[in-house]
From TrEMBL:
This is ABC transporter substrate-binding protein. Keywords: Cell inner membrane, Cell membrane, Membrane, Signal, Transport. Belongs to the CmpA/NrtA family. CDD domains: PBP2_NrtA_CpmA_like. It comes from Deinococcus ruber. It holds the Pfam family NMT1_2. The keyword Transmembrane does not apply.
Amino acid sequence: MNHADLNRSPTDSLNATPRRLSSRRLLQVTLLGAVGVATGAALLGVSTVQAQKATTVRIGYFPNLTHAPALVALERGEFAKAFGKVTLQTKDFVSGTQLSEAFAAGTIDIGYIGPGPAINAVAKGLPVQIIAGASNAGAVLIARKGVNIATFKDLAGKKVGVPSLGNTQDISLRHILKEQGLKSQVDGGNVSIIPVAPADVAAAFSSKSLDAALVPEPWGALLESQGNKLVLDEKAIWRGGNYPSAVVIVNTQFAADNPQLVQAFVKAHLNAVNFILKNTPAAQAAISAQLLKLTGQKVNALVLQRALARTRITADIDMDALKEYADLNREAGYAREIPDLSKAVNLTYLNAARAGK
């Protein structure tokens, strides 16, 4: 994967996020220290989640299939059951950029997010760590019906949607543009990159305000079912489909103060992952119910089947892919440096959950 020369103009970066971060430097923690505190506290074996400091756990996620473990756990009541008397609060977001801002504001404790924004958050100094994976692949490039886009190079002069600037699909799109000899308008090329919520892409296609979109599932499969054209499937986006599309991050201070709550969350998350893999029809029903509640759109079973076939639900973390995303973040101008991923990733809770703890 050639990452060379992916530099971008500052005007194409999300300036709001750095300003938010600079006002919250007092929230920063030394990540290595946080690992030691959180890990040590977890190993103490606090007997109940009620013994923790927090009275509420705030979880953020997106109404996407790539966040299926969150959708299934919520629909089945897994999180509420895991936390016992501790109150569960949830909030859905459109993109990793929004969720990162919520972490910066201190309004979210645990969140499902794309690997690009997760690494970018660490690089910007947010007190967060990656504690589990959620899904791999699950993103496709769809062209509006009637638009002459047969290959990626046909995006020249077109308007292409991504969930937000700086999110995982945006980073992937810019990498492919570079590989194909194309550039965004901000970089001096003729491809317009426009942030549009995945659930709103169908309306943007109808109004012809977008020509194509790189979207997470199930929105790609839904757009395809409406007569739009699949240009690149999940395998053609990057690394033959072997790349993370969603991970789980936690506020490190919250983890240090509430290790048993975080452990309870990861156990529920892992249960949801396993349920999806072993009980696909029931999982699809749970996902469909959550998507309807969150977006008002009903995704039928056939569309969900197609979307799931392009998405690998997993709690695993691909460190090589994370390192590549970190490099792309820096080269794209979203981060000034590549963070130390040995400090940014803490798999203590996941390993304990898999060991039955």
